[in-house]
Amino acid sequence: MNRPAQDDICLDLQRIERIGIEEAVFSQGKADVHLHEIAQQALATGKPMLFTRLSQAQLDSFPADVRDKFNYEPISRTGILGPVPNVVLDGQVAIVCAGTSDAFVAREAERTLRHHGVGSKVIMDVGLAGLHRILNRVEEIKKHAIIIVCAGMDAALPTVLGGLVSSMVIAVPTSVGYGVAAGGESALRATLATCSAGVVVTNIDNGFGAACAALRMLRSMKLR
Amino acid sequence: MNRPAQDDICLDLQRIERIGIEEAVFSQGKADVHLHEIAQQALATGKPMLFTRLSQAQLDSFPADVRDKFNYEPISRTGILGPVPNVVLDGQVAIVCAGTSDAFVAREAERTLRHHGVGSKVIMDVGLAGLHRILNRVEEIKKHAIIIVCAGMDAALPTVLGGLVSSMVIAVPTSVGYGVAAGGESALRATLATCSAGVVVTNIDNGFGAACAALRMLRSMKLR
Amino acid sequence: MNRPAQDDICLDLQRIERIGIEEAVFSQGKADVHLHEIAQQALATGKPMLFTRLSQAQLDSFPADVRDKFNYEPISRTGILGPVPNVVLDGQVAIVCAGTSDAFVAREAERTLRHHGVGSKVIMDVGLAGLHRILNRVEEIKKHAIIIVCAGMDAALPTVLGGLVSSMVIAVPTSVGYGVAAGGESALRATLATCSAGVVVTNIDNGFGAACAALRMLRSMKLR
Amino acid sequence: MNRPAQDDICLDLQRIERIGIEEAVFSQGKADVHLHEIAQQALATGKPMLFTRLSQAQLDSFPADVRDKFNYEPISRTGILGPVPNVVLDGQVAIVCAGTSDAFVAREAERTLRHHGVGSKVIMDVGLAGLHRILNRVEEIKKHAIIIVCAGMDAALPTVLGGLVSSMVIAVPTSVGYGVAAGGESALRATLATCSAGVVVTNIDNGFGAACAALRMLRSMKLR
Amino acid sequence: MNRPAQDDICLDLQRIERIGIEEAVFSQGKADVHLHEIAQQALATGKPMLFTRLSQAQLDSFPADVRDKFNYEPISRTGILGPVPNVVLDGQVAIVCAGTSDAFVAREAERTLRHHGVGSKVIMDVGLAGLHRILNRVEEIKKHAIIIVCAGMDAALPTVLGGLVSSMVIAVPTSVGYGVAAGGESALRATLATCSAGVVVTNIDNGFGAACAALRMLRSMKLR
Amino acid sequence: MNRPAQDDICLDLQRIERIGIEEAVFSQGKADVHLHEIAQQALATGKPMLFTRLSQAQLDSFPADVRDKFNYEPISRTGILGPVPNVVLDGQVAIVCAGTSDAFVAREAERTLRHHGVGSKVIMDVGLAGLHRILNRVEEIKKHAIIIVCAGMDAALPTVLGGLVSSMVIAVPTSVGYGVAAGGESALRATLATCSAGVVVTNIDNGFGAACAALRMLRSMKLR
Amino acid sequence: MNRPAQDDICLDLQRIERIGIEEAVFSQGKADVHLHEIAQQALATGKPMLFTRLSQAQLDSFPADVRDKFNYEPISRTGILGPVPNVVLDGQVAIVCAGTSDAFVAREAERTLRHHGVGSKVIMDVGLAGLHRILNRVEEIKKHAIIIVCAGMDAALPTVLGGLVSSMVIAVPTSVGYGVAAGGESALRATLATCSAGVVVTNIDNGFGAACAALRMLRSMKLR
Amino acid sequence: MNRPAQDDICLDLQRIERIGIEEAVFSQGKADVHLHEIAQQALATGKPMLFTRLSQAQLDSFPADVRDKFNYEPISRTGILGPVPNVVLDGQVAIVCAGTSDAFVAREAERTLRHHGVGSKVIMDVGLAGLHRILNRVEEIKKHAIIIVCAGMDAALPTVLGGLVSSMVIAVPTSVGYGVAAGGESALRATLATCSAGVVVTNIDNGFGAACAALRMLRSMKLR
């Protein structure tokens, strides 16, 4: 009575032509049979494919020959099936993190960009509890056209940066914290309610989405 | 025992140099004495100043000679104190609205851009209940580097547009609707949870903020 | 001091006569002793019984002879105790899914219908991030009197379909996603706030309920 | 600098052909200039148009000659611009209300159906605080293929009806009540979490939407 | 540097004299060292002590000689350290459950009452999806002065009972369900917003609290 | 096209026989035509009728001869249409208020009881900010079988009383306060989460419901 | 049947001896008769009394001779009945505001302190959208033992200050803003989730409470 | 492609000079490689470092020679890497707990203070269900300049203490409880809405933050 797994999959392989962003696989919650089928279809295209939120257990469920083709990074839980491209554009995107705990989001953004051939400058652990840390780096940061800022808890860092630089500031609230912070709802609300004009926001922990917004902007800038 | 109103004001007049966006006045909830004092200080600078969320009653509270200097638009409740600048840049920004009820947000964005010398193409009432309306306009819309999409209720329009164009898509959830929609919380959540990669979001009804994000991007593109 | 398990059970075996839908067992959270007792009573009736949200661990807890009588489908976590009926009605119900991750809900609907002798057409992975996928299938979909649409995250698919077809559209928001989406609250709110007139909604992940609504409608149509 | 009002309007006049439901105007929050322009365009079509959530103040803002063309019902705040059609289909839809306070929702449903030529049987004030009231009417209610149930506070009525009849049950949670009930959130949650299989739900107070769902179903039944 | 566990405990052994209810131990989240120390102090008093929400793992952590003194019931996760008293009062309290899944709450209430020498009549699985089940038992139920009603999901049962009997009705919303129901928030809101006059409510899953309310009432009735 | 108002009303006049509580009219949100029709039907019965949450504007909308028959109390916004009965039972119910701002709830309870012939002792403004105020009154309070405690903000008073007396404690959270307190959600949550065993809770501001619970208990005690 | 107003009032006049803070009157929502009675009792004591959240309409409701004894400040809506004391302690408390819109909270704090004889330094409009504004004032601010920081929207200011000074930082989230910010919930969550160690928080808009916390601390410092 | 772990860390070692509080490590959610690198950097400074929310599994992940340098306390899950300092200040801070279940928060506060050389008096299990417990200890408690009160569920204890003492009262809502209490949201709201003037609040379970607030105050008092 059950349908074959391939009937459940409809990859959007022309997405890159349409919107400049590659189809990617949101792995969390997908059944193993579905992930395996997607990998087969991806391999058949001959192009690399990004899997986000791919757990170690999901990775281990693949047949060994497929698993070996993954470039996997455990902190971001991203797997790139196929070769990781060379960087063909650099110097436009900075990724700034309030705390070391936000690294999993920053790396998802970094790897999504890299998967599209875009390099990025990562600046970690410059949260506002010690304001000098971000002030020391502002000159370096403001040289980038696009700044992705990952912050949890009270997520005040995008506000401060937004008031100091004219670049595009994309805030990624993270789920770091506990109590009222846990889940990132407070960080999300704070970034949306920012008093710094023109800061935009993605879903909680959505490093992938912030990177894709950067890709849209780079394309509008004719850099991609 | 009360302090003079001028002690309560500290305008950030160098904001335009620092981040490319003019200081603006969020009027909602401000006392009349504070608004009047701000207007005096703004007039003294000789430069126009944007007042957002300025109610008709607040406008009427000004002395007649000041009130007459306002260019006021009632649907967006924006007042520009001083001359409205000429458009010096056009063709880069589209503002798309799901419904006529979202006009108050679209106009706030439109006027914020205009206050900075940027023109915009406004396309209204193309919500998904009749999909053909947006499909008929996609070719026209996708020519713009930046697309601001205002939508309330289920706010599905940014998702559809995000899947069709490679431009920067800035979603502004609006408070249009009732029941679960009212206040814009559903629209906000839907835009943040969009399945279209790289759509970014502002606070509910924040046409001003979306316009400012566009200004940041235009500056990064060296167009301003 | 403890009561015998059979005192805790009161099956509603006349439900099918009263409302046209069979009594079913919501397994999640039930104690093993209760599930086992229910299975005994069901087997005694000689009629098949549907168990929803039956985990693999719960299935394994049954005595082997009972366990072997289950037709179990792991993605939907549904177990049918007794024979799965032949399809006696087809072509009236389509089940449409935004993403492969929504399969667990779609299959619960599909199997609930099948348990009542109703076939359904399943169309998977046609979410709005690639609008062409759903547009390619609209003609096929609109031939069905009833369309069950399963979608998580921003759940914009029911709105688009609702604007294109005159069929009954039953939206099932799913818990797929993370951050603001997780748990399905955003999808639920978006479907309830839909701008497409006459779309109705069930609880999050409630494929069973959507199927039962379809059964009600088919009965009103005198097709069952 | 302001755009003419007609540029803000894009009526979907083919909706009736596409999905069997007429375009309607959600009036709440719309500017008077927009409502007036919509009325002009509607009158130009020569077909009646339904305005929902039209306040008395909005109605009074119309020029007298337009205002006089409205058939207005104050409890539901619905205005039909143009003639109210004759009933061409009857006996299929019942509208059941838990309390007299829910009348504003029931009437919106009733008038939306009537605007499409469909009559309905309204049964009011049969809430569960006195169970006999609904039990006395069940035989009468169950003769209808579609039952719209409007209930606020704990909204238990759809559950009880759903367990007694095989008809399609469309629950409309209402905003009636106070404290935890106010706004209809509790009623909404209760109807979505109903233990009666196959009850579907609309947004809070959405009598219009429930009527449109009934219209979809009647069309599938080839009765319209 | 750590304090001895006994310094962290201050049992309220005179509670029974003061308010007619025995001190009890809320075990969930307590450290094993604290539970063990409490058991030692309880044993020293020579009186039985009720432990609620005591997990199997916590039970197993006790030294064998203490663990053997527990009368443990796994569905309610209650442990009575010391002898379970004889029933000295019967016929006053009924415990009614909407579904079998609510058994864990009903049994917590039943055992709390029994720990105080009060018997209770338990009536399970009479939820409203099949209204006849509760109507069949109303005459039996209404003979009790106090009715504890445990219900999850939409929790409509207390409303129906409250409209049929003059007894004290204490509603206990349960965490049974999923989606909007999960966690019991919907059941809680529905019971608080009940349209039946004079139904009172406890915290979600709080069978213990409902039993204690019954104990207060029995004392006021001079039956204890 | 509109239905006559009497078709919208179905009074439950046998409620007093069935559950010991009179039918009452929840006035908030009801249309004037409905209130007037209810009053006519009530007067026809010859028995007094309680209207709760009846605003001054609603009261003034009645024809003068009906309005004059109301015994109206503005703080509780309760109107009794017909004579207020004599007290036939006293000394069983105390109503305790944390602050003067809670008076509107306390009076609704007091008047609901009085409407049923039950007197009550009201003790106001004994909130915990000055603990001595409640300690000074505990001996007096504990003589009552039933204690209704009205408290807003943090609503700690029911917890303290619950730990001091063996009476039935019915907590009524009130909407008094602002910020996190406003609307009574914090008070409601605090009373439901009370650490005092056996305190029961009603909806926010539901003085009527607390009084009805007291009426249920008095009937079980054979005092009514 | 109504009780005299004085029975509803129980002033806590010894509060100042007990905890070092004067009894004050929370006016919002109180009935006029209650406010008038409180004023009479306060005047009888011969000591000044602070009324918070006293609307202009409430003030106007007093008999003229009482109204004239109020020192009223409209932005904070505070009225001091009786003489405003001289400042007897200065230099210990700074009140810092993110925006001019927060003035109503700052002034409530300022006037509560002054009512207790404590002066304060107010520094307004130094929000993070222009970081230089607060950096310019840090040296001046850090000389105070206690810093009350009022901020709405994303409320990032307490975090930045908390990382720069060793003083006690008391954050008062304000209800300034709209969309996700409105009501102050976002500001509240952000301040509670602050990444700066040891910042404490009061209720939204609670300038009175922050001032009282300062009074507690000054007393512990033996300065009062 | 991955960055070395040391590039992700930027310790704020001058925090103690700037604000009087040592840099500390929030361990929850940090990757093991990051924790190990932080420990190396901390050891290199020669000064002890506090790790909060360090799970047993995280502790076990350290190389044995580093793990052995931790002074670990399992209930609070705090690890001090390096020697625990002697107490250099005592008698100023009391830590009061409503229940034994709150011990994990109290110990985090106690150990944070001790890490800074400050002793504290801990008073456990004095919740309001038995009011005498706290009344018995008030004289002892009020001798302390600072009182940290840890309470979950309804968290009424800070309110009662705030009304009895003039000391600084810092409330720490805890996540103890279930149903509406779970997660500490109810306790948080109750403490923020307290009717006792001048009680301040930290994030849920934030014993560390409360201790840091005490450190700020002690420094302002020139005791540190």
Quick description:
The first copy, chain A, has 224 residues and is α/β, with parallel strands linked by helices. Chain A contains 10 helices and 9 strands. In chain A, helix 5 packs parallel to helix 10 (207-220).
How would you portray this structure in words?
The structure is a homooctamer of 224-residue chains. Helices cover 35% and strands 17% of the residues of chain A. Chain A is globular, with a radius of gyration of 18 Å. In chain A, helix 5 packs parallel to helix 10 (207-220). With 224 residues, the first copy, chain A, is an alpha/beta fold. The first copy, chain A, has a five-stranded parallel sheet. The model of chain A has no long low-confidence stretch (mean pLDDT 96). The first copy, chain A, has ten helices and nine strands. Chains in contact: A-B, A-C, A-G, A-H, B-C, B-D, B-G, C-D, C-E, D-E, D-F, E-F, E-H, F-G, F-H, G-H. Chain A binds chain B through residues 15, 18-21, 24, 145-146, 162-170, 188, 192-194, 196-204, 208-217, 219-221, and chain B through 15, 18-21, 24, 145-146, 162-170, 188, 192-194, 196-204, 208-217, 219-221.
